């Protein structure tokens, strides 16, 4: 086994305590010594003068379910991420059960891969991830939406035998190594599930002390009701709950965030194990179908297209959207489409497209959905800077990427979340200290996940380390040019080995 020592650096150990000068010695894939003493000479030394040494970052919420298995995808590793949690918002690439093609259709907007992907079971997926050349360690949640579609197809209404089968598959997934369970209650058909369907699944999660992560039913005017629904289910089942990407979307709803945080704090005082997470950006990113009423998506994309081609149905859909969409038409930018014909629209807002097509914005939106068979990605201006600050700096908040791939312009969080946090949020805006920020992307998410020996620089922990320059670390990724590598990261180590696909050690003098 190889011994290696990181010397002369500033250790930001993940616990949140003040950084200190010291050295970290690793043997094989473990950290064997951490000390603030003057180092002895080591045979293999890496001089980290002027640099910080932190635990590898843990991305608690990612949608790289497929890309994390691809050794050519290095966006996460280049940010210092050594482990990530996939299977979020109800979408996982397993199981298949009777409906492999439907599961792909359901999740394609989020996973953004064609081809015959999909795994029969969590075990198959986790084995594939472990033996892949991917640059991060993968932890998977079982997605409620995928389970439901695997068992019952794209229909909204399911039967008791369907629910029983879903429970069996979830139990198997948890016993095969899934880190927990997720729901995505704004995505059809999972969105038609109420507490009566979901609670028995949460009891299975709770019995195994795994994590339940939820993309709630609403992040706009229905935010507080959605939060109360989730807290109620956690109370009834005793499960540990993580509110995914908490925010109040749309200007009219910005005032709700203080109440939302109040609800969460009150639930904690009641003994509910609840926390939340958010990405360090004011804009969100999703699929355009998210704003359609549930009934319009019943039966999948073919059924949706049929409805949008029928004048009466289309009118009803338009009315629903106009009365519920929290953002303005100027706030929503198209970032990805399927067809060649509409590629020129990428980068335009829905307001722009409406002008170009001389139609009402809602009509332009529906026409685009129809032309693209539902496959439209968007970035939307969601929340105020003040709210973002209140969320990020809250002691219950982990910081996540929520990154996903699009054919077009991905949200810059895919390439930039972690350096953006340490550069813009910590160094430029000074919203929190470096130690606090590192804690929110290492030990805190590791504890949420119940992950052992990850997230701290401490003896016996895994030798996942990031060496970076706190004065330079930044993400140049923008909404217009999102696919840009971070700067200021000198080296990334996973299991004691230099991840040489990311940064050369030349940066570490
Ligand atoms: Zn989500």
In brief:
The chain has 509 residues and is α/β, with parallel strands linked by helices.
Explain what you see.
The chain has 509 residues and is an alpha/beta fold. The strands form 3 sheets. Strands 1, 2, 3, 4, 5, 17, 18 and 19 form an 8-stranded mixed sheet that branches. An 8-stranded parallel sheet has the order 6-7-8-9-10-11-12-16, sandwiched between helices. Helix 4 (160-175) runs parallel beside helix 5 (195-207). Strand 1 and strand 2 (20-27) form a beta hairpin. It is built from 16 helices and 19 strands. Helix content is 33%, strand content 19%. It has helices at residues 100-111, 122-130, 144-152, 160-175, 195-207, 223-237, 256-269, 294-297, 301-308, 311-324, 350-356, 361-371, 385-392, 413-428, 434-440, 443-449; strands at residues 3-11, 20-27, 30-35, 45-47, 52-55, 57-59, 81-86, 137-143, 180-184, 211-215, 240-243, 274-278, 283-287, 332-336, 377-381, 397-399, 465-468, 489-494, 497-498. It folds into 3 domains: 3-54 and 457-507, Urease, subunit C, domain 1 (Roll); 58-282 and 383-406 and 432-449, Alpha-Beta Barrel (TIM Barrel), CATH 3.20.20; 287-380, no CATH class.
Major sheet characteristics: 8 strands, mixed
What is the typical, i.e. mean, pLDDT? 95
Ligand catalogue: zinc ion
Give the helix tally.
16
**Rg over alpha carbons:** 23 Å
Cα-to-Cα separation, first versus last residue = 24 Å
CATH class of the largest domain: Alpha Beta
Query: What fold name goes in the CATH topology slot of the largest domain?
Result: TIM Barrel
Using the alpha-carbon principal axes, give the shape: globular
Q: What's the total number of strands?
A: 19
- By CATH, the architecture of the largest domain is named Alpha-Beta Barrel
**How helical, in percent, are the residues?**
25-40%
> Low-confidence parts lasting 5 or more residues at pLDDT below 50?
none
The total tally of domains equals: 3
- Structural class by helix and strand composition: alpha/beta
CATH H-level name of the largest domain... which superfamily? Metal-dependent hydrolases
Strand content: 15-25%
């Amino acid at each position: 086994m190889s011994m290696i020592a990181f010397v002369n650096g500033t250790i930001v150990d993940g616990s949140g305590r003040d950084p200190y000068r010291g050295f970290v010695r690793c043997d094989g894939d473990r950290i064997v010594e951490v000390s603030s003493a003057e180092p002895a000479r080591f045979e293999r030394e890496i001089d980290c003068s002027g640099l910080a040494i932190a635990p590898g970052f843990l991305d608690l919420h990612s949608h790289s379910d497929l890309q994390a298995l691809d050794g050519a995808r290095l966006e996460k590793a280049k940010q210092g991420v050594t482990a990530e949690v996939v299977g979020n918002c109800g979408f996982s690439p397993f199981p298949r059960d009777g409906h492999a093609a439907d599961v792909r259709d359901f999740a394609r907007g989020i996973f953004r891969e064609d081809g015959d992907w999909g795994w029969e079971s969590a075990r198959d997926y986790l084995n594939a991830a472990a033996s892949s050349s991917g640059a991060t360690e993968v932890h998977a949640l079982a997605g409620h939406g995928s389970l439901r579609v695997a068992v019952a197809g794209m229909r909204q209404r399911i039967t008791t035998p369907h629910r029983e089968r879903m429970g069996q598959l979830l139990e198997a997934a948890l016993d095969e190594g899934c880190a927990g369970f997720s729901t995505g209650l704004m995505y059809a058909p999972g969105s038609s599930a109420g507490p009566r369907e979901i609670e028995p699944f949460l009891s299975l999660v709770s019995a195994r002390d795994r994590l339940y992560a939820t993309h709630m039913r609403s992040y706009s005017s229905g935010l507080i009701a959605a939060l109360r629904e989730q807290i109620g289910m956690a109370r009834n089942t005793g499960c540990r709950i993580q509110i995914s990407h908490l925010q109040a979307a749309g200007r009219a709803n910005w005032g709700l965030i203080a109440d939302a945080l109040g609800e969460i704090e009150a639930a904690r005082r009641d003994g509910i194990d609840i926390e939340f997470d958010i990405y360090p950006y004011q804009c969100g990113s999703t699929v355009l179908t998210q704003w359609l009423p549930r009934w319009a998506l019943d039966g999948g994309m073919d059924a949706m297209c049929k409805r949008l081609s029928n004048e009466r149905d289309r009118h009803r859909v338009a009315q629903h959207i106009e009365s519920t969409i929290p953002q303005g038409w100027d706030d929503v930018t198209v970032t990805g489409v399927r067809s060649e014909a509409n590629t020129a629209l990428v980068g335009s807002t829905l307001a722009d497209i409406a002008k170009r097509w001389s139609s009402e914005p809602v009509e332009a939106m529906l026409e685009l959905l129809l032309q693209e068979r539902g496959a439209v990605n968007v970035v939307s201006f969601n929340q105020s800077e003040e709210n973002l600050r209140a969320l990020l700096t809250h002691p219950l908040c982990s910081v996540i990427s929520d990154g996903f791939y699009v054919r077009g312009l991905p949200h810059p969080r895919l390439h930039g979340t972690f350096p953006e946090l340490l550069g813009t949020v910590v160094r430029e805006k000074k919203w929190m200290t470096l130690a606090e920020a590192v804690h929110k992307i290492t030990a805190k998410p590791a504890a949420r996940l119940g992950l052992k020996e990850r997230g701290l620089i401490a003896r016996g922990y895994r030798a996942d380390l990031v060496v970076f320059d706190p004065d330079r670390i930044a993400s140049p990724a923008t909404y217009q040019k999102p696919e840009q590598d971070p700067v200021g990261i000198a080296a990334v180590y996973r299991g004691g080995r230099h991840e040489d696909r990311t940064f050369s050690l030349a940066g570490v003098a």
